[in-house]
Each structure stands twice: as structure tokens, then as C-alpha cells.
Amino acid sequence: MKEKILKKREGFEGQQLIVVPKKIAADFLTKDPITRQLYITDIGYYPRARFHYVKRTVGVGQHIIIYCIEGRGWIEIDKKRIDVLPSQFIIIPSGMAHKYMSEEEDPWTIYWIHFKGDISAFIVELILQRAKNYKLHLTYNETRIRLFEEICLNLQKGYSGDNLRYVNMIFNHFLSSLLYEEKFNYSGKEQPDDVIAHTIGMMQERLDQVITLQELSGYAGLSISHFSAVFREKTGYSPIEYFNHLKIQKACQYLMFSSATVKEVANRLGVEDQYYFSRMFSKLMGMSPSEYRNRNKAVEQ
Questions:
Q1: What is the pLDDT of residues 116-135, one digit of tens each?
Q2: Phi and psi for 116 in degrees, rounded to 5?
């Protein structure tokens, strides 16, 4: 009897999804001495993800971690079907065919990460040595969740070199909490606020608008030339370029989890010219918005 599967395309209430642009990976992550060792390509959180289903007949080019904190689901890998329960995580090696699904009556809540890097295969092997059928049990730990949330929070602030090093070094800590749970000890420390951080926060709140360099420098209380110099020193990018990165990050979410047309997505991000938006998206992501959407649809076929 053929398996009946319902698929959800519009996303899940309260979800998070961040995809690091291919250009950022190629220009920085694969070259920097720190990040090239181990780096995140995609990260997300799906709460109560009813009808969540993914099938990849040839796997993907990254390793995958799925950490279930409540509900139930299953994964099929290496010709084995494995039930996934709360406080369990699954590791899926790069290039391995798999499919997984949330249970309809008791849908899972999961944190998930795709990652690569020079030492990533070695890390996966260490995890597999401790796992049974690609699965490990973890005691729920709020500080581990905070690590995940801090990665997401900082990735949402953009792709400066320091930011990318920071989040991927946190990711190393996150992985150590999976591998060496008994040794895991985390003491969170807030990063100090500054004028650039405040300005980036304002950018995030106004992704649906057009903001001029003059407005940004005025918000920061600095001259345009001084603000631009300080911003580039802190982030590695000009203020407008950085703002566009944040817009494309949000565009990925619209394309992945809504049926909005490319023109509608552009309008939601304050870009009236659909073709300018498509060029901006293609430059950063390495493919057009339509190609990006179709690629993710194909993943779930």
C-alpha cells in the first residue's frame, strides 16, 4: 500500500529559518582559517511542525542535525526507519539518501542545522561512534537551546567576518554539548550594545521600507562619513549593502514558506522594481528567486 503523505509548504507558526548565501560561503566561510574548519549553511526551528516532510533521494551536500524537543516523528536512513522522540537528536551524514516526517497526531518540535567544513566529517564520525542507528538521547538543557538561539540571533544581524566567526565558534560549543553532554557547562554572557548594534536592530524592524544612508547615520547620531567608516569597520560591509543582505535573508523565508510571487516578495521588502530585486537576490544567493523556490520544492518531491 502506497504511503499517504501530506506536505506543508506555508511554514509553521513561530518558525525560524536562516540560509547563509552561497556567495558569503564562497567568499568567506570556505577561506577563513577559523570558519573553513566547521561552518553552518542553514539553520532553523520548526515548532509543532504538522505535515513536515522531506525526501532527498541523493542526500545533500551538508551534514544535518535534527534535535527533537517535543512531539514525535520518524526518519528513514540506510534502509532503516527510526522513530524520533523528545530529547533525541539525529545525525545525517552528507550525501546519504534519507527522508523524514513529523507525526500527524503528535507533531514534533525540532531544531535543525546543516553544516560543512574541513573537519565536519570527522565530527560526524565522532557522533556516530556514540549513536545508535544515527540517534542519540539528550537530557533537555535550556543552556543548549540558548546557544542555538544565539546563533540564530547573530546570523540575523548579518554576515560580517567577526559575526560569522562568532556564530560558528558558538556552533563548535553547541556540537561539544552533543558529544560530551556530561561535561557540558555553559555560562551565557551578553554582548555589549553599541550604536552599530542599535542601527542594525532598526534595519531589522524596517525591512519593508527604503532607508537612506542619511537616515541611518542620523539614527546613529553620526555624520555620514564617520558612520559609514565605523559601520564598515565593525561589519566589513557598507550600511546599505548590509541592509540588502538582511532583506535577502528575509526574502529566502518568504520564498520558502509562502506562495507570494517574486514581485510580491520584492514589494514586501520595499523594492518596487522586481527586476532589480531579482538581480540583487541572484548576486548574493547564486541563483534567481524562482530558482531558489523551485530548488526547495524539488527537495520535497
A1: 999 999 999 999 998 888 98
A2: -140, -170
The pTM is what? 0.79
Number of structural domains found in the chain: 2
Which one-letter amino acid corresponds to residue 44? G
Which residue in 288, 301, 299 sits closest to 62, CA to CA? 299
One domain for residues 163 and 227: no
| Helix, strand or coil, per DSSP, at residue 40 | strand
Distance CA 288, CA 38 (A): 27
Q: Which residues contact 278 (CB under 8 A, 6 or more apart)?
A: 262, 266, 288, 289
Find cell 545508535 and name the residue: 132
Contacts of 148 (CB under 8 A, 6+ apart): 43, 45, 111, 113, 174
Report, as ranges of residue numbers, the positions in the chain whose pLDDT lies below 50: 1-6, 9, 185-191, 301
* C-alpha–C-alpha distance, residues 200 and 243, integer Å: 8
